[in-house]
Predict the structure.
Amino acid sequence: MGNGMNKIVEGLYVGNIRDAQDRKRLDSNNITHILSIHDMAKKLHDDKEYLCIKASDNAAQDLSQFFRQCNEFIHAARLSGGSVLVHCLAGVSRSVTVTVAYLMTVTNLGWRDTLKAVRGARQCANPNFGFQRQLGNYEEEQLEQERKWLKSQFPENPFQDEAACRRLMEAHWQFVLHGNNAETEESNTYTLPYNAYGNREPKNRTDSEGGTKSDSEANKRTVSKRLETTEQSSCTWQNDRSHGPVANSKETQIFRSEVKHDISGKD
């Protein structure tokens, strides 16, 4: 569960149910509007403007049907000078999904980059696999129309959301690359949705010489190329023995860096 609400861009926060119940935290962040999206969403504070959407954290749940309604609520609140808290129960999946959809609509970013931006501010952000599919479909089939619609309703947009999102994307990259603790491999990764590949092994890719390479090897080469272009000379690949010997498994390699970045700028 997320630990405290996080500011994503000006006037927009993501949090969990406890944040929505915490009067002191709401007031300290000047929250005037609350978008509550979970199975038992309801108004909790009489002095706050609410949009309550009852929806389950289930891959089969259609959240995309609510995107326009959420976009309008969030944007109108921000333009009026207010601040919005978008929350579900854990502040990880449902709330993040509608936040990503909104930010896609007010910027020129796609869903993958927008999710990276949200993760730059809230590391636990991780919509379930079904919601990620819906964001992808939204980008491909509805996004341009929704951008035009929102602009027709609110012609003026004083916010610099795309620039803010790009800064958050860089913060996310630095976290994935280095983590808050370079000694902890687990802190540098995000877990794939359960059974994302079904019962299949990840496909091998064909390299430029006609051979094949695994996804892990491809990822290693991608990171290495990025490092070469950014001259990160202190970054190396090392044999991973941190988990001890594993029967019938090959020794793996992991990425280590001596460089630590402070990207902890939290509210």
Notes: Residues 103 and 123 are 17 Å apart (CA to CA). The first helix runs from residue 17 to 21. The first strand starts at residue 6 and ends at 9.
